[in-house]
């Protein structure tokens, strides 16, 4: 019942509270915009150019559609749209300034490169929501650039658009009465205004610091893998011992598709005779699941191994398992890792089949299952060819 009651409360609140308030706000904004348009000139162009994108953020720009349509019906064009289009042009100028000032941050530059072409054509959302708005100050300076472009159009004359929808350069063919040059000057003014305002005042300190440190952090990231490669023993083949005593089955025969499909890597499945799980390699414990039903290890040769005791045993919340190691512990081949109560697992109606998977199988040339049938703990079960 709770979702139904919640839906009813929200529905009534929207009908009797939110919609009336939104109607008052919309009517007030329409009246204010009509007043600004009557004032005309550079002032009205600047105000409309600055305020349009904040209206877009709240979805209030939709109230302008009737004004556009009424203007087109009466005069053949809407003088409002070219001014409002300057808001997106200001975003373009701001993005170019950010590109130059933060050019050391290669990831950010790639983001700008992807958003700029569509921004120039009038699709501003990638620039707004992906670049300027998350940074804060660049969004404000971009709005100022839009105001400058709007002021230019407002000052030079009534440049109207014969249809609504496009923006940016895509709106240029729709400008009426050969006033395309006015619109083009407005675009250039918004580009330049947004660029200068952002370049001088719109760069957040933390973004600049991140860009300045970007090269250093990348250098450290490239050094560390090199060190790891040097310290990792090279091998032509590495053997994995059985962590359990029992019967070996093909991984593809178990019911869980995550394992049987090989999605997690190549390996085997073991139906254990007892619940003692030992380390199949010498290495480090990389993961001990909170429910103790699974454990991950990395051998000294770099082979990553997952041992998952039983199927769907995560639901037992650790009740059938006792762990003898913790994350980052160093282990020798044959060290006891986990003791599982197989009778508890069976009593819960769950399978005790235990996958042993090489999770970084793609790293190696060949994974060979070297044993089938009955097996003892410590007996070779998988061979990895580098």
Automatic annotation (TrEMBL):
Cellular component annotations (GO), alphabetically ordered: plasma membrane
InterPro entries in alphabetical order: Dup_hybrid_motif, PTS_EIIA_1_perm, PTS_EIIC, PTS_EIIC_1, PTS_Sugar-Specific_Components
Subcellular location: Cell membrane
Swiss-Prot/TrEMBL keywords: Cell membrane, Membrane, Phosphotransferase system, Sugar transport, Transferase, Transmembrane, Transmembrane helix, Transport
Residue ranges annotated for the PTS EIIA type-1 domain, each copy included: 256-360
Keyword NAD tagged: no
GO MF entries: protein-N(PI)-phosphohistidine-sugar phosphotransferase activity; protein-phosphocysteine-N-acetylmuramate phosphotransferase system transporter activity
Alphabetical list of Pfam families matching this protein: PTS_EIIA_1, PTS_EIIC
Entry coiled-coil feature ranges: none
Annotated TM spans: 7-29, 35-60, 80-102, 114-132, 180-201
Keyword set includes Transferase: yes
Membrane topology type: Multi-pass membrane protein
Ranges for domain PTS EIIC type-1: 1-213
GO BP, sorted A to Z: phosphoenolpyruvate-dependent sugar phosphotransferase system
Alphabetical list of PANTHER family matching this protein: PHOSPHOTRANSFERASE SYSTEM TRANSPORT PROTEIN, PTS SYSTEM N-ACETYLMURAMIC ACID-SPECIFIC EIIBC COMPONENT
Protein name: PTS system sucrose-specific IIB component / PTS system sucrose-specific IIC component
